[in-house]
């Protein structure tokens, strides 16, 4: 039922000499079955690494990933392969995710072939059904097309269809609508919501765009430099953010009404280098509320309520 993950210290190699990057550091979160958790943060905050860790596409150096009561962290190759039927990922760039020489129908059917699901005829029917469910109709026509013959939005529908063809329960959507025009984006979000109901899905929705979470997320976890700085329900976070970084993200969301005035909290300066993390609170070089303590002491996780956590020295004093 829950997906806790505790992960510390992920390494990467830089040119010349080996250095370690704290891509994700000591994070822990749960996703309730049937819910959507939005993982939000700037580029380089560790969101994508977290998504890949949850799916074991990257191996964690420490910690555990629990999927429906089972620790999958040390799962061997074969059981992990079987589990991949249930947990899938939708990538940001549909063009890169699809083989340009493979027809759409064959691409969507491929996971069924890999997992040996259904007879030849059944697989064919399942693909046609899935094409209809993602509104690519007439399905028999789209079946025979190539990715280059489709628009960006249509290609992303194909990627979604391929991810859902094995009837997974858990989907990591990694910036799944980021490359699309605003109008197409809202159509895709509507589609993801519809499919969530139809297939009883649970989503980990990774995005740099807090505004997008409004349409789809029940809960939000805000990441900064590899650590989660605030979690809460969508309403709690959006209407009453606690962490200065969350406030800054919200202040950057454009308001449809130009008369609406928002406190501007765009943090000054660049995101610090993850190879050489700041001392104390990682956000202190950009924080308008910085105190002496923030520069030397890492803030603890403070529980503000049953559903709310913030990592900041301004709280729990
Ligand atoms: Fe700002 Fe200090 Fe809170 Fe970090 S701990 S966010 S520097 S007030």
TrEMBL record:
Swiss-Prot/TrEMBL keywords: ATP-binding, Nucleotide-binding, Transport
Keyword Transmembrane helix: no
InterPro entries attached to this UniProt entry: AAA+_ATPase, ABC_transp_ATP-bind, ABC_transporter-like_ATP-bd, ABC_transporter-like_CS, Oligopep_ABC_C, P-loop_NTPase
PROSITE patterns cross-referenced by the UniProt entry: ABC_TRANSPORTER_1, ABC_TRANSPORTER_2
Segments forming domain ABC transporter: 1-250
Gene Ontology MF terms: ATP binding; ATP hydrolysis activity
Pfam families in the record: ABC_tran, oligo_HPY
GO BP: peptide transport; transmembrane transport
Protein name: Peptide ABC transporter ATPase
